[in-house]
Amino acid sequence: MRSSTLRGRVASVASAAALLSAIAACAAPVVEPTGAAQANVRVMVKLVRSSEDARAIADQAARVAGVAVSYAAATSPSWHALVLRCADSAACDAAIARLRAAGTLYQAVEVDGRKTRSTS
User: Fold this and answer.
1) Would you say the pTM of this structure is higher than 0.70?
2) Would you place residue 112 in the very low, low, confident or very high pLDDT band (cuts 50, 70, 90)?
3) Considering the domain 38-118, what is its CATH architecture?
């Protein structure tokens, strides 16, 4: 009986380790396979019309900004954090300017934190 209990515990530990490995893989940052450096800027936008639809907010921001946008978080139905993924710092500056010019959509667009460069 002892060996079957030990085998059961070993199997449980192995299952737990596999589960933790799967969770860690999901939490790992996604690295996009590009050869050039990329600038990422986190911005806070205040919507003219409140919304809680993260996908719609990010998609609309991407269309306006002209760069890839991912949704980061909401602080309220009006304020949302987005990450702009640009080819370089100048492209992010231009994307932010386009967001700020869209006054019918955004009451405010503020840079949240510093621009970061990541290489793949």
Assistant:
1) no
2) confident
3) 2-Layer Sandwich (3.30)
Note whether 96 and 44 are within 8 A (CB): no
At 1-41, the pLDDT tens digits run 555 565 656 555 445 444 334 444 443 333 344 445 688 99
Please identify which residue in the block is written with the tokens 């993260």.
Answer: 54
Q: In this structure, what is the dihedral angle of CA atoms 22, 27, 28, 29, given to the nearest 10 degrees?
A: 150
What percent helix, strand, coil does the chain show, rounded to 5? 40, 30, 30
Among 32, 45, 28, 43, which Cα is nearest to 87's? 32
